[in-house]
Amino acid sequence: MKKQKINFKILIPIILLSVISIITIYSALTYTSSSLGNLALKQAVWYLIGWGLVLILMKLKNEYLYQHTWFLYIFGNILLVGLLIFGTPINNSKCWFTIPGIGSIQPSEFMKIFIMLTLATMIHNFRNDYKNPNTKEEFLFILKTFVIVLIPSILTFLQPDTGSIFIYLIIYFSMMFASGIRMRWFIIGFFIIILLLGSFLCIYFFKENLFIKIFGSSIYYRLERIFNWHSGSGLQLENAMAAIGSSGIVGHGYNKTPIYFPESSTDFIFAVFASNFGFLGIIILLGIIIYLDMSILKLSRKKIDDTDKFIIAGIFGMLFFQQIQNIGMTVGLLPITGITLPFISYGGSSLLSYMLIVGVLLNISMKKDRTYKYR
């Protein structure tokens, strides 16, 4: 039997991104509150824990996750409900549990993985049970899967954490597209979304008092922030763009971010890296990110189980959306939504969830080798 092989096309980019993450967060410490401690050191610790999770998951195999999908999904929703009761308010949001001696844990980050696992097993079972499903069978299936995403979306909305909801929906549509259901459902869904979104925005623009009464002032001001992004106003965006724009070809130099902007180690970490290493550094970083994305897509084209293919669709959709959204909002091309840059931005919960994804991808890669061995 051949020895199992680790997919270095996925492993090496992750290692490079981890190094970039730690050194960039260290550079961002210049403008980070000292009360938060050494975030670069904490990120390094989170990466070590993350690699430990990867090793554990590679030992357990993905089948262990698939067998316990519903337990994980229910557990994730219980955590989201618990946030509304016991969560620690930070910036008027209850998105985190504060654990003394450890820090803050954000359940919505792990809920992304639980949604992927649940949808993957549901799609797999549906395709096995219905080889040629009719319209009614597909509709009921779509309804069931949408409810699976709707429940955590509502709980996350109440925190409120709109960025995570966007990611839930991206995961859903990516995996449903990969499921092979008829294209008519996407067309119908598009028109339904346009209708609901149009009604939502009409209330927002023309009935402000009613909007605040229904959805609350917090949601109103979050939307106001999104719709005013194109003006380029605001300390975050203006200073981040100034730091990037003045960096030139090779940047201002490591640990020399020339101007302050909030959230420099999380939402706007790309601006710190760009200001330090300039256009050349940006090209290298984007090259690593694109290489990782293409490696994930290439893995999906191999002869692997359907469940694994659906998981890959969700992973790729989530990572690609976050990469585009984070970099886009940093340079003023997209609204500021608070979505972080995967594997780069500081955050224990988000990083651990990404490392779980790495473990899943490596398992899929090795499972491919095992499949060929026993044939």
Q: How would you classify the quaternary structure?
A: single chain
Helices, by number, come to: 14
Give me the strand/helix succession.
HHHHEEEHHHHHHHHHH
Distance between the termini: 11 Å
Percentage of residues in strands: under 5%
Quick one: overall form? globular
Side by side, the strands of the main sheet go 1-2-3
Provide the low-confidence segments as ranges. Answer: 369-375
Number of strands: 3
Number of domains: 1
Helix content: over 70%
- Which structural class is indicated by helix and strand composition? mainly alpha
Rg (CA only) = 21 Å
Overall pLDDT: 87
| Largest β sheet strand count, sense and barrel closure | 3 strands, antiparallel
Task: Walk me through what this model shows.
With about 375 residues, this protein is mostly helical. The chain has one domain (about 10-375). It has 14 helices and three strands. The chain has helices spanning about 10-30, 40-60, 60-65, 70-85, 105-130, 135-155, 160-180, 185-205, 210-215, 215-225, 235-245, 270-300, 305-330, 350-375, and strands at about 90, 95-100, 105. It has a three-stranded antiparallel sheet with strand order 1-2-3, with helices on one face. Helix 5 (about 105-130) packs parallel to helix 14 (about 350-375) and helix 7 packs antiparallel against helix 13. The longest helix has about 30 residues, at about 270-300. The N and C termini lie close together (about 10 Å). Residues about 370-375 have low confidence and may be disordered.
